Structures are given as C-alpha cells and as structure tokens.
Amino acid sequence: MRRKTEVFVSVDVETAGPIPGEYSLLSIGACVVNDPAKTFSCELKPINRNADPKALQVSGLSLDELAKNGLEPAEAMRAFAQWLDALVEKDGSVVFVGLNAPFDWSFVNYYFHRFTGDNPFGFTALDIKALFMGATGCDWADTRSSKMTERLSPRLKGDHQALHDAQYQAELFSLIRTKLLGNR
C-alpha cells in the first residue's frame, strides 16, 4: 500500500487579538517547507472592529487600511485553499506547520470553516515548539524562537510579517529535522 504524499506547509498569521471569531485574522503567510520560494500571502478585511492594541502594534497592521485594501475573507480563504490544493497530487495531503501552531491553526481553521465550509489541513497541526522540545529535552520556556535561533543558527529572522515569518519558521522546522533529528 502506497503512503499518501505529505506536503509540509509553514503557516503564520497576524491577527487583531487572541481568539478567532471575536477578533479578525488580518494576514496569512505560507510557504512549502521544502521549497520556501513557493508562497502564498494575503491581507484580509477585518470581520469586526475588535482589536487588542498590542496585537496591532506588533504586526503594524491597521484595521482602517485593511478595511479598504484587504481581501474579503471568503475570497482570501478560497485563494488559500486553491493554492494548497495545487501543491498536492490526488492522493496527497497538506500538513499545517506552525510556531505556536495552536494559535495560528485556530484562526485558519475558524476562517476556513466559516468562509469555505472545510479546512484543507483537517483538524491537526504540527507545532514546531513541541517538536523542538521533544528533540532537545528542553523546558517549555526554552521553546521560544530566540532560543531555537541560538541553537540552530538559521539564516532568516522573524519580523511579524506573516510571509517572512512563515519562511523563517520553515527554516527552523527544517533545521530541527536535519540537525537535531537527522531526518531529511
């Protein structure tokens, strides 16, 4: 029996606050882990005006600007789903990879279900923080990206721009697999 082809996709989001539904998903960045030049990114119109000022400060995004220039959420999620679909063959699947995957996945999952009816990633996500903890035996407090950077020496850095962060996370994930786990 042939195994399904898995395509690991690094995903990062910027949001207006801590939980989906109450706060808006503002931007999505994604790349194929093994080919980080294959990318998807978009900015979305907010679904409401709720915002945690700290979240907006970190991302540098403006609800007013996004209300004018962002994609409608349904359009953004359809485009993301089409991009994901083009990555895999009929028997393949996409695997959501994130740094603090529970947070990013929760927004992506909510938006996919609300605006398209289905999440191409399914109901799971692979968390880089947990992988790093398992590979190194470190404490949870030492799974911050700054600690990973000290240990792994990636070329890229995170900057709270969703696509840049997705590519940075893809590099961290690959380095954990090659340097710490001896995988391909």
From TrEMBL:
This is 3'-5' exonuclease. InterPro entries: Ribonucl_H, RNaseH-like_sf, RNaseH_sf. One of its GO terms (biological process) is DNA metabolic process. Keywords: Exonuclease, Hydrolase, Nuclease. GO terms for cellular component: cytosol. GO terms for molecular function: 3'-5' exonuclease activity; nucleic acid binding. It comes from the Bacteria. Residues 7-182 form the Exonuclease domain. Pfam families: RNase_T.
